[in-house]
Amino acid sequence: MERFIGASKNMGSKPTASGVSKGAPRNRLPLQRTRQRLSFERRLRLWLYLMGLPAVLLIAIELRQLHLDLAIQLIVLPMAIGTWLLIVSLLQEQIFRPLQTLANVVAALREDDYSFRARGGRRNDAMGDLALEINALAGMLQVQRVGAMEAMALVERVMKSMQSPVLAFDPDGRLKLLNAAAERAFSLKKQTTAERTHGKSESGKNDLDRLLRAEDNDLLSLSNAQEPARWVVKRTGFRLRGVPHTLFVLSDVSAALREEERLAWERLIRVLGHEINNSLTPIKSIAGSLRSRLDATGDTTEEAEDFARGLEVIEDRAESLNRFLQAYRELAGLPAPRLESIRLAGLVKRVAKLETRVVVAVAEAEDVVVLADADQLAQALINLVRNAAEASMSADAGLLSLGGQTPSVEIGWETGPGEVQINITDNGPGLTNAGNLFVPFYTTKPNGTGIGLVLAQQIALAHAGSVQLANRSEAHADSYRAVHGCVASLRLPLHPIASEAL
Predict the structure, then answer these.
(1) Using the 8-state DSSP alphabet, how is residue 394 labeled?
(2) Residue-wise over 238-273: b if at least 16 C-beta within 10 A, else e?
(3) In terms of DSSP bridges, do strands 243-252 and 116-118 run parallel, antiparallel, or are they unpaired?
């Protein structure tokens, strides 16, 4: 039994997560109280002493019957007692040490430390079988622990790389888990860990409240400046440490809904264009013929001149309406982009030179190569710059701009993780109704067609990007707190193949 005196350490195991030193004493679990007051060690020691008592008595009787000297009896009898005490001590060592070793191994398992093993176990031996079974249990738990840690690492990696927001709430509605996509979707990224854990973010609190009230397969719209993100909610329950929690997984359907909306607008524009053109063509033709006949008569009376002016107005409005429909047909018939590697700095500078009504400054920045259709991207930037220039030249801009600044527009860009953001900044009056910016036919300008921003958005979406507009005081609170105006942001993805192509 001396083979169980020590426990071996598994050198291949990793440091424990519990942080308990392997050399530190183990915290034993208290056993259930029994009626016996003596411990197992004391009871066993007492029984061994009692078992040696008859032998001591027999030795004492034999010594007396042999009529030996008292001095010899006083020497032999203590030697016999000492020998038995030594035997009892050795027996205790052989019994208690293996049990203490196995107890330490079990205590290490309880503390998630699987690096200790009992040595020298053999089959067909009660203590050896116990040691081998505990070693096998430790090995199995170690494999399961490593598997659980690898699975948890995989789950964390998947959670971080998922584009779908994932959130979990406890029964009290407190946020317990979220991934990076959820932080972005609910505007929780700038909050502290405690605020995110308890769902105390002011910017996303209303959205979180609506999420908690949503049922499975509900459609949820999250707050955004111009383009509300729409998500399908998948709701399920799970238990964590016996406490029921609610798990939400959101699937973005904004792109699909935008595509359906675009197709609906295309069908509407096609029908309207066909019907209106069928009426505009004869109206314009008849008005032109009547005006030609009137001019041929040479009638210069006031009544004839009024009639001629009326015909001219009808002809001009018919032509204007025809140009209006042609512009929407251009929007509906936007072709697929022909991608090629483009240097952004050169394209931005060329676009800036096309606007001559206001000063368009190009901010200095490191050149970036993007994979895009040069003509379509230029058209999108032209529309955004034109919109910024018209906003800065509006009648109210001089009253709202700081210190009576002259109308101006600035173009700059900045790179982020996997994308480039082009910013067109103006010093106009800013946005008043951001909810309808990307709605076709909607415009706040007297001579506007309502397709400039929509066309820029369609081009950005065709390039897997996006367009957003925000007031400068909202988008750049630190730098433009007292400055009015708007920032139009065009985001485009960065492709490694674009840089390699040049």
Answers:
(1) S
(2) eeeeeeebbbbbbebebeeebeeebeebbeebeeeb
(3) unpaired
d(CA 100, CA 39): 14
DSSP single-letter state for residue 180: H
Strands (E), 317-433: 340-343, 359-362, 369-372, 408-416, 419-426
Query: Is there a contact between 485 and 493 (Cβ–Cβ < 8 Å)?
Result: no
Amino acid, res. 85: L
Q: Alpha-carbon Rg of the chain, whole angstroms?
A: 43
Exposed / middle / buried, residue 470 (Cβ in 10 Å: 0-12, 13-18, 19+) = middle
Handedness of CA 360, 354, 425, 443 (dihedral sign): positive
* Distance from C-alpha of 49 to C-alpha of 55, rounded to nearest angstrom: 10
For the residues 460-485, what does the mean pLDDT come to?
68
The single residue listed with the structure tokens 């982020």 is 416
Amino acid letter, residue 126:
A
Quote the pLDDT of residue 128: 81
Displacement of CA 342 from its chain's centroid (Å): 31
Instruction: Report helix, strand or coil for 296.
Output: helix
Distance between CA atoms of residues 281 and 300, nearest Å = 28
Q: What does the chain come to in residues? A: 502
**Pairing state between β 419-426 and 408-416:** antiparallel
325, HSE (Cβ side, Cα atoms, 13 Å):
19
HSE, side-chain direction, 13 A CA sphere, residue 111: 21
121-170: per-residue pLDDT in tens? 778 877 788 888 888 888 888 888 888 888 888 888 888 888 888 899 99
Residues 6+ apart with CB under 8 A from 362: 348, 349, 352, 410, 411, 412
Rounded-to-integer distance, Cα 137 and Cα 146, Å: 14
Identity at 60, one-letter amino acid code: A
Residue 208 is classified by DSSP as H
Q: Does 7 have pLDDT greater than 60? A: no
pTM equals 0.48
Please write the tens of the pLDDT for every residue from 354-390.
Answer: 888 888 899 988 888 999 988 889 888 998 998 888 8
Q: Are 355 and 385 spatial neighbours (Cβ–Cβ below 8 Å)?
A: yes
CB-based contacts of 226, cutoff 8 Å, min separation 6 = 434, 435, 437, 438, 468, 469
Cα separation of 249 and 255, whole Å? 17
Distance CA 40, CA 232 (A): 64
